[in-house]
Amino acid sequence: MAIEAQFHVLAVDDNLIDRKLIEKLLKTSSFQVTAVDSGSKALEFLGLQEEEQRNHHPQEMEVNLIITDYSMPGMTGYDLLRKIKESSSLKDIPVVIMSSENIPSRINRCLEEGAEDFFLKPVQLSDVSKLRPHLLRRKAEEEEEKPQRNIRKRKAIEESLTHMLMEDLNKFISIEDIFGELNYEFSHKRWKFGS
Amino acid sequence: MDVGQLQRQFTDYTASLFREGFLDDQFTQLQKLQDENNPDFVFEVVSLFFDDSEKLVNNMAKALEQQTVEFKQVDAHVHQFKGSSSSVGAHRVKNVCVTFRNFCEQQNIEGCKRCLQQLRHEYSLLKSKLETLFRLEQQIIAAGGSIPMVE
Predict the structure, then answer these.
(1) Range of the domain at A102
(2) ipTM of the complex as predicted
(3) CATH of the domain at A42
(4) Is residue A100 part of a domain?
(5) How many CB pairs under 8 A join A and B?
(6) Which residues of A touch B (CB under 8 A)?
(7) Where is the Response regulatory domain (chain A) (predicted)?
(8) What is the pLDDT of residue A67?
(9) What was the pLDDT predicted at B1?
(10) Model-level pTM greater than 0.90?
(11) What gap in Å lies between CA A177 and CA A169, rounded to an integer?
């Protein structure tokens, strides 16, 4: 049974109306949405997501895309972007920035920092509909890479196992040597206590 | 009044709101997002907008009444208001916000106070007009009709 790919988007915006709007736009485009009102709440959610994955509940919480407003009090969208790209576990999640101000230097800075795209507010359905094909393409690329990744993983495991075995084998051999020497020692010496 | 007449009234009234600059294309975008799953979407967003606006305008007023006006603080509120009004298609309100922000930058208190008054005026005007529009919608639905689709 083919199930349409479900993508989970984390939307970040401090403005209540904009949050409602982006949520609706995303839901209309068949995305699963979690909307938060700050960068720190976003990181909290993503940290929680990391934990869930470690506890083997990946499907429910996995975030496939983050869309964030640029101008937010405290942590800006740019700050959030940087934090995500600096995190080894989060850096591969695509990030889209939204802003009401069309400032080329701002846009460039975000793209240079690794933002996937930049949407001018108010965000339209046509903007959001660009996201799905992009995510599907990424998913397809990841799927292609999977068998290759599995082969590489296997090789790495085999190599480390071999290494471990060789180490143990060597230890075993040296213990044999030691026992050999000890036997000789014991047979030629008296125990201090026993004497 | 029959359904047809109500629907025509609705269409004409909507057209006038656009013509007079109260609403812009973004409002149409909101209407397009409304569907059977979310039949009250526009009403919900607009209601949120008016509630939020009330708070923002009061915050602006308080900030402007201070002995020493914190223009950055005032500007932050105006920026929020500009964002929300832009997102709902409240065209005239948004334009006042743009002017307001310029006065904040210039630290022109008189200009700011004038803008605040204008904001209050524009936003209550828009509120009553949208209330009329929603009332018309409800009358159409009550009469068994459907809301005419926006061009």
Answers:
(1) 8-129
(2) 0.91
(3) 3.40.50.2300
(4) yes
(5) 46
(6) 15-18, 20-21, 24-25, 28, 71, 73, 100, 121-122, 124-125
(7) 8-136
(8) 98
(9) 74
(10) no
(11) 13
Question: Is residue A97 domain-shared with residue A190, that is, in the same domain?
Answer: no
Taking chain B (151 residues) in runs of 10, the rounded mean pLDDT of each run is: 91 96 96 89 96 95 94 95 97 97 96 97 96 94 86 58
- Other beta carbons within 10 angstroms of residue B89's beta carbon come to 26
Two tokens, residue A11: 């939307």
C-alpha distances (whole Å) from A144 to each of A22, A59, B86 are 32, 20, 43
**Number of domains chain A contains:** 2
pLDDT at residue A134 above 50?
yes
Which residue is listed with tokens 């790919």? A5
Same domain, residue pair A43 and A120: yes
Chain B residues closer than 8 Å to A73 by CB: 76
Query: Which residue, chain included where needed, has tokens 């109306």?
Result: A17
Last residue of a domain, one of A129, A155, A179: A129
CA distance B1 to chain A (A): 35
Q: CA A16, A18, A23: angle at the middle one, nearest 5?
A: 100
Give residue A184's pLDDT: 61
Interface check for B80 against chain A (CB to CB < 8 A): the answer is yes
- Whether A102 is in a domain gets the answer yes
Q: Report residue A101: phi and psi, to 5°.
A: -110, 130
What is the token pair recorded at A65?
């895309």
Nearest by CB to residue B41, choosing from A24, A124, A125, is: A24
Residue A192 — very low, low, confident or very high, per pLDDT cuts 50/70/90? very low
CA atoms of B80 and A17, how far apart (whole Å): 10
- Interface check for B59 against chain A (CB to CB < 8 A): the answer is no
Calpha distance B123→B55 (Å, rounded): 13
